[in-house]
TrEMBL record:
Binds 2 magnesium or manganese ions per subunit. Residues 265-448 form the ATP-grasp domain. HAMAP family: RimK. One of its GO terms (cellular component) is cytoplasm. Mg(2+) 1 binds at residues 409, 421. Its cofactor is Mg(2+); Mn(2+). GO terms for molecular function: ATP binding; metal ion binding; ribosomal S6-glutamic acid ligase activity. One of its GO terms (biological process) is SOS response. This is Probable alpha-L-glutamate ligase. It is an enzyme of class 6 (ligase). In the C-terminal section; belongs to the RimK family. Belongs to the RimK family. The keyword Ligase applies. It comes from Alkalicaulis satelles. Mg(2+) 2 binds at residues 421, 423.
Length: 469
C-alpha cells in the first residue's frame, strides 16, 4: 500500500531552522531547476578549503528594517541564468528546509530578490520524488506568520560604507583622484590598485586576488580604469574580482567589446545605430574595394588599437588612401577604413552615459588644420545641448556594448548622429570642467544603487522557530 503524496501548492510557507528563519513565503516553480533565497551582503569567510558564507536576509518583503544575519557552509559557486536571461555567479549553500511537518536538505543559491514578490523560489531540484505540485492551490501545507519575527529588534536601515577598488596604473591622474575623492566624500573607502601588480589564485570555491603578494580583502565594487596596453590582463583581473562577489562597474566582456573597434562597429550595426560606413579586409588585393565600400576619398584609416586619436589618419585623395593602407599593411597592423563625415567640420560630441542616462555632454572642436578633435591633441571643449536623437544614439550605443559607464563620441551629419566610438574608460577632467557636473559623484551614486548597502549590526538573538499551523 502506497502512502499519499506530499502535495505542494504554487506557493508555500517554509522555514530554515538552521539559518534562524522561521517563516519565508516561497514560490514553488517547477519551471526553474535551481532554488534561490534572497540574500544581500554575501561574504565568504573561513578556510579556503571549506568556506562558509555569511549573508543578510530581509524575510518580510515590505519590511527592509527587519534583517536576519545568516551563515552556512558553501558547497559551490554556480552560474545561474535568471528568467530574464541574465547570467549571475552565485554562492550555493545546503540547508534544511521545513514545509508543513516535513524537513529535508536542499541546495539553494543566494541572490538579491528584493524586487521580487517572494523571498524564496523553490525549484524542481528541491522537490522530492514523492512530492507533487498542485498549481491551482495555495499553501497546501498550512500557514505560518511573519509575527514569528516579533522578538527581532527593528531599526531603520543605515547604509554601510562600501569598500571600492579603483583598478588603474595611473593613481595620480585626474580621473582616478576624482573617483577616490567622490567615494570618500560619501563615506566610502576607495583604494587604488595597480593592475600590473595583481596576481590571481584561481580555484572553484575560494578565488583570491593578490597585490604585491598580499591577499586582498573582499571589495564591494571595482571601478576599472584599464589602459589599452593592459586590456587583456586587466579583463582577466576583473573576471577574478567578479568571482569574489564584487560588483564590476564595467564588465570585462563589455570592455573587451568596446576596445575591439571592428567588433564594436559590428555591435553598433546590429543594434541599428547610425555610424560612419566602415570597411575591413585582410587581403592586400582588397585595397580598391575598401576605398569603394566607404564611398571613396576622403576617408579615415584607423588602427584597431588606436586611442586618443593616435593611429588615425585622414587620406584626402584616393592615391593617399592607397598609400596609407599599404603602409599599415606593411606594418602588419590591423585597421579599419571609414567614411569621412565632412559636414562635421572637425567637431564631435562626447556624451557621458551612466546607467542608461546621458548625464553630461560637451562639443570638442579640432584645431585649425586638424580633423581629430581629441582634447589630448589640442581640441577645445565647449558646452552643448544635444538633440533627442543624439541622446538616444548615445544610450543605445552604451547598451549595445553592455557598458554601465561610457563616453560615446558621435558626429553631427546630414543624415543624423553617427557614433564614432564608445569609450569604456572615459576621462573625467574635460567633461567635468565643461559641463560643471559632478560626474565622479554620479558614478559613485550608480555604484550605491547596484551594491546593496545594508547596515552592519551586532549579532542578534535568533528568533524561536515554529512549525506550520
Amino acid at each position: 500500500m502506497t502512502s499519499d503524496p506530499f502535495v505542494l501548492g504554487w506557493e508555500e510557507w517554509a522555514a530554515f531552522p538552521g539559518l534562524g528563519l522561521p517563516a519565508i513565503k516561497a514560490k514553488v516553480d517547477t519551471g526553474a531547476r535551481t532554488s534561490a533565497l534572497h540574500a544581500v551582503a554575501v561574504e565568504p569567510f573561513g578556510p579556503e578549503a571549506s568556506p562558509q558564507v555569511r549573508f543578510i536576509m530581509h524575510p518580510v518583503p515590505d519590511r527592509p528594517d527587519l534583517e536576519i544575519t545568516c551563515a552556512a557552509p558553501a558547497v559551490d559557486r554556480r552560474e545561474v541564468i535568471s528568467s530574464n536571461g541574465e547570467s549571475e555567479l552565485r554562492w550555493v549553500i545546503r540547508a534544511d528546509v521545513r514545509i508543513g511537518g516535513r524537513t529535508w536538505p536542499i541546495e539553494v543559491t543566494l541572490t538579491n530578490r528584493e524586487t521580487m514578490q517572494y523571498r524564496m523560489l523553490l525549484g524542481r531540484s528541491a522537490i522530492l520524488d514523492d512530492m507533487v505540485v498542485n498549481p491551482g492551490q495555495s499553501c497546501m501545507q498550512g500557514q505560518l506568520s511573519y509575527d514569528l519575527y516579533g522578538d527581532v529588534p527593528r531599526r531603520p536601515p543605515v547604509p554601510r560604507p562600501l569598500r571600492i577598488a579603483i583598478l588603474t596604473r595611473e593613481p595620480k591622474n585626474y580621473s582616478s583622484l576624482r573617483l577616490k575623492a567622490a567615494a570618500e566624500a560619501r563615506g566610502h573607502v576607495a583604494e587604488m590598485i595597480n593592475t600590473a601588480r595583481v596576481t590571481m589564485a584561481i580555484n572553484t570555491l575560494a578565488p583570491a586576488v593578490y597585490y604585491d603578494g598580499r591577499k586582498l580583502p573582499r571589495y564591494d565594487a571595482v571601478i576599472p580604469r584599464i589602459g589599452a596596453s593592459m586590456t587583456n590582463y586587466g579583463m582577466a583581473v576583473l573576471r577574478q574580482f567578479e568571482m569574489t562577489g564584487a560588483y564590476i562597474l564595467n564588465s570585462a566582456s563589455a570592455i573587451g567589446a568596446s576596445r575591439d573597434k571592428l567588433y564594436a562597429h559590428q555591435l553598433l550595426a546590429r543594434a541599428g545605430i547610425g555610424m560612419p560606413t566602415t570597411a575591413f579586409a585582410h587581403s592586400p588585393k582588397d585595397t580598391r574595394n575598401l576605398i569603394e565600400h566607404v564611398g571613396g576619398a576622403p576617408l579615415v584609416v584607423k588602427l584597431l588599437e588606436s586611442t586618443q586619436g593616435r593611429g588615425v589618419v585622414l587620406a584626402e585623395t584616393r592615391k593617399a588612401a592607397e598609400s596609407v593602407i599599404d603602409a599599415f599593411r606593411g606594418l602588419d597592423a590591423n585597421f579599419i577604413v571609414q567614411e569621412f563625415v565632412k559636414e562635421a567640420g572637425g567637431a564631435d560630441i562626447r556624451c557621458f552615459v551612466i546607467g542608461g542616462k546621458v548625464v553630461a555632454a560637451m562639443k570638442r572642436q579640432a584645431q585649425a588644420g586638424e580633423f581629430r578633435s581629441n582634447l589630448h591633441r589640442g581640441g577645445e571643449a565647449a558646452p552643448v545641448r544635444i538633440t533627442r536623437d543624439e541622446r538616444s544614439a548615445a544610450i543605445k550605443a552604451a547598451r549595445a556594448m553592455g557598458l554601465a559607464v561610457a563616453g560615446v563620441d558621435l558626429l553631427r551629419s546630414e543624415t543624423g548622429p553617427k557614433v564614432l566610438e564608445v569609450n569604456s574608460s572615459p576621462g573625467l577632467e574635460g567633461i567635468e570642467a565643461t559641463s560643471k557636473k559632478d560626474v565622479a559623484g554620479l558614478i559613485i551614486e550608480h555604484l550605491e544603487t547596484h551594491v546593496r548597502t545594508v547596515s552592519a549590526r551586532p549579532a542578534r538573538r535568533r528568533p524561536k522557530t515554529s512549525g506550520a499551523s
